[in-house]
Amino acid sequence: MSVERTLAIIKPDAVAKGVAGTILARIEADGFKILGIKMLRLSAEQASGFYAVHKERSFYRSLCTFMTQGPSVVIVLEADNAIQRWRDLMGATDPANAAAGTIRKEFASSIEANAVHGSDAPATAAFEIPYFFSALELWAR
Ligand code: GDP
């Protein structure tokens, strides 16, 4: 097990529902360290760049529109095995398939408006973290 960093996003649906603080409390209770956090509203260009890996998918345009509809909270988390642990806490992409106790089971509205994002691999985290944060913006021991 190694100490990893991952990018988490509390998506616009969850911020609009007023559960950003509840989700942050779950993150802290689960032992993740918050190294960086900011609230921002993604522009169309920023959303399409972030999700460029999905540009051939049928839902790409809709996803990008959803991600620009209001503010998100973007967070860098650190923990042992952070990437997989945060994905386990998020739950399955489609809340209909998400396990009890996961954030998506509790807070997602649909397969698209599914409350949270998490990097899916070390290479993805290495792209996603600097997409939003400079090294100077991340807390370091
Ligand atoms: P994740 O890693 O669990 O977030 O899932 P993916 O990387 O497969 O998809 C990225 C995001 O696209 C998801 O979190 C959803 O917001 C959205 N998404 C995924 N599948 C669908 C779909 O079938 N329809 C729509 N409208 N959105 C989807």
What would your notes on this structure say?
The chain is of the alpha+beta class and 141 residues long. It has a single domain (3-133), classed as Alpha-Beta Plaits (2-Layer Sandwich), CATH 3.30.70. The chain is 40% helix and 20% strand. A 4-stranded antiparallel β-sheet has the order 2-3-1-4, with helices on both faces. The structure holds guanosine-5'-diphosphate. Residues 59, 62-63, 93, 111-112, 114, 117, 120 line the site of guanosine-5'-diphosphate.
Summarize this, please?
Helices cover 40% and strands 20% of the residues. With 141 residues, the chain is an alpha+beta fold. A four-stranded antiparallel β-sheet has the order 2-3-1-4, sandwiched between helices.
Beta-strand content estimate? 15-25%
Distance between the terminal alpha carbons, to the nearest Å?
Answer: 20 Å
Number of domains: 1
Shape: globular
Considering the protein shown, what is the CATH homologous superfamily? Nucleoside diphosphate kinase-like domain
Structural class: alpha+beta
